TrEMBL record:
<keyword id="KW-0784">Thiamine biosynthesis</keyword>
<keyword id="KW-0479">Metal-binding</keyword>
<protein>
    <recommendedName>
        <fullName>Thiamine-phosphate synthase</fullName>
        <ecNumber>2.5.1.3</ecNumber>
    </recommendedName>
</protein>
<feature type="binding site">
    <location>
        <begin position="136"/>
        <end position="138"/>
    </location>
    <ligand>
        <name>2-[(2R,5Z)-2-carboxy-4-methylthiazol-5(2H)-ylidene]ethyl phosphate</name>
    </ligand>
</feature>
<comment type="function">
    <text>Condenses 4-methyl-5-(beta-hydroxyethyl)thiazole monophosphate (THZ-P) and 2-methyl-4-amino-5-hydroxymethyl pyrimidine pyrophosphate (HMP-PP) to form thiamine monophosphate (TMP).</text>
</comment>
<feature type="domain" description="Thiamine phosphate synthase/TenI">
    <location>
        <begin position="9"/>
        <end position="189"/>
    </location>
</feature>
<feature type="binding site">
    <location>
        <position position="139"/>
    </location>
    <ligand>
        <name>4-amino-2-methyl-5-(diphosphooxymethyl)pyrimidine</name>
    </ligand>
</feature>
<feature type="binding site">
    <location>
        <position position="91"/>
    </location>
    <ligand>
        <name>Mg(2+)</name>
    </ligand>
</feature>
<feature type="binding site">
    <location>
        <position position="166"/>
    </location>
    <ligand>
        <name>2-[(2R,5Z)-2-carboxy-4-methylthiazol-5(2H)-ylidene]ethyl phosphate</name>
    </ligand>
</feature>
<comment type="pathway">
    <text>Cofactor biosynthesis; thiamine diphosphate biosynthesis; thiamine phosphate from 4-amino-2-methyl-5-diphosphomethylpyrimidine and 4-methyl-5-(2-phosphoethyl)-thiazole: step 1/1.</text>
</comment>
<feature type="binding site">
    <location>
        <begin position="186"/>
        <end position="187"/>
    </location>
    <ligand>
        <name>2-[(2R,5Z)-2-carboxy-4-methylthiazol-5(2H)-ylidene]ethyl phosphate</name>
    </ligand>
</feature>
<feature type="binding site">
    <location>
        <position position="110"/>
    </location>
    <ligand>
        <name>4-amino-2-methyl-5-(diphosphooxymethyl)pyrimidine</name>
    </ligand>
</feature>
<keyword id="KW-0460">Magnesium</keyword>
<feature type="binding site">
    <location>
        <position position="71"/>
    </location>
    <ligand>
        <name>4-amino-2-methyl-5-(diphosphooxymethyl)pyrimidine</name>
    </ligand>
</feature>
<feature type="binding site">
    <location>
        <begin position="39"/>
        <end position="43"/>
    </location>
    <ligand>
        <name>4-amino-2-methyl-5-(diphosphooxymethyl)pyrimidine</name>
    </ligand>
</feature>
<keyword id="KW-0808">Transferase</keyword>
<comment type="similarity">
    <text>Belongs to the thiamine-phosphate synthase family.</text>
</comment>
Length: 213
C-alpha cells in the first residue's frame, strides 16, 4: 500500500456488536458493501491472538484491495503485514510509530480538538479521526466534539480526516453537511443485520455529497 491515501467509508471491527456472527463474515459483508478501509480494533485479545486475527483480516482486505489498519499496536501491524496503524493521543507518538513502520505504511491518529489535528498533520500523520462527533456507547465517557469540530477540521486540515463516533444512516447527512467527506462507524455497521446494505447506503450519501465538487 503506497501513500498518499484516500478513502470514503472506514469500518472498524467491534465484536461485541455481533454475537453469534464471526468477525470475518461481518467484515466481508462490509467490504462487499463498499467499505474502503478497515481497522482491527480489539482491546481484549492477547497479542498472539491479535496477530492471528490481523493476518486473517489482511488476507480478506487484500482480496478487496482495501487497506487494513491495526488499532494501537505497530508490532502487530508489522507481524501481520497490515497497511498501517491507528493511534490514540496516549499511544506511541507518531514520530516513533513512523520509525517503526517506515515511510510506506499508513499512520492515523484520533483527535478531539483542532490543536491535536494540527499537531498530527505537522508530525506526518496520513489521516486523522475527528470525534466522537456524537455520544457513543462504543467509546463511553468521552465527550462529544459535535459537528462544530468537523467544520473546523474541514476548514483547516489538509490531510484526510474521517468523522467518527455515533454516526448512523440517520445523522450521516448532518456530518457531511458540516464538511466531512469520509465517515467511520462501528455499531451502525457491524451491529446491524445487514452491514452490506448499510455500507451501500452510507456510501451513496457520501457520493451524493461529493459529486460535483
Ligand atoms: N473513536 C472515537 S468514537 C469511536 C472511536 C473508536 C467509536 C465509534 O463507534 P460507533 O459505534 O460508530 O459510535
Ligand atoms: Mg489506542
Amino acid at each position: 500500500m503506497n501513500r498518499p491515501l484516500d478513502f470514503k467509508l472506514y469500518v472498524i471491527t467491534g465484536e461485541n456488536y455481533h454475537p453469534g456472527r464471526g468477525m470475518m463474515e461481518v467484515m466481508e459483508a462490509a467490504l462487499r458493501g463498499g467499505a474502503d478501509i478497515v481497522q482491527l480494533r480489539d482491546k481484549t485479545s492477547p497479542k498472539r491472538e491479535l496477530i492471528e486475527k490481523a493476518r486473517r483480516l489482511k488476507e480478506l482486505t487484500a482480496k478487496y484491495g482495501v487497506p487494513l489498519i491495526v488499532n494501537d499496536h505497530p508490532d502487530v501491524a508489522l507481524a501481520a503485514d497490515a497497511d498501517g496503524v491507528h493511534l490514540g493521543q496516549d499511544d506511541l507518538p507518531i514520530e516513533v510509530a513512523r520509525e517503526l513502520l517506515g515511510p510506506r505504511r499508513i499512520i492515523g491518529i484520533s483527535t478531539h480538538r483542532i490543536e491535536q489535528a494540527r499537531a498530527a498533520e505537522r508530525a506526518g500523520a496520513d489521516y486523522i479521526g475527528v470525534g466522537p462527533v456524537y455520544p457513543t456507547g462504543t467509546k463511553p465517557g468521552r465527550q462529544a466534539v459535535t459537528t462544530a469540530y468537523v467544520a473546523q477540521a474541514a476548514a483547516e486540515i489538509r490531510i484526510p480526516f474521517v468523522a467518527i463516533g455515533g454516526i448512523t444512516e440517520t445523522n450521516a447527512e448532518e456530518v457531511l453537511r458540516a464538511g466531512a467527506r469520509r465517515l467511520c462507524a462501528v455499531s451502525a455497521i457491524v451491529g446491524r443485520d445487514n452491514p452490506e446494505a448499510v455500507c451501500r447506503n452510507l456510501l451513496g450519501k457520501i457520493n451524493a455529497w461529493t459529486s460535483g465538487e
